[in-house]
């Protein structure tokens, strides 16, 4: 809980994998 808050949002077509 909070893993998505710790890391930045995945860029569209950049950090997809």
Q: What secondary-structure arrangement, pairings included, does this model have?
A:
Elements: H1 3-6
Q: Care to give the gist of this entry?
A:
The chain is mostly helical. It has one helix at residues 3-6.
Write up this protein.
By secondary structure, this protein is an all-alpha fold. The chain is built from one helix and no strands.
Give helix % range.
10-25%
Largest sheet: none
Helix-strand string: H
What is the mean predicted local confidence, pLDDT? 63
Structural class by secondary-structure content = mainly alpha
Beta-strand residue fraction: under 5%
What is the β-strand count? 0
Calculate Rg over CA atoms.
9 Å
The geometry reads as: rod-shaped
Descriptive keywords:
17 residues; mainly alpha; 1 helix
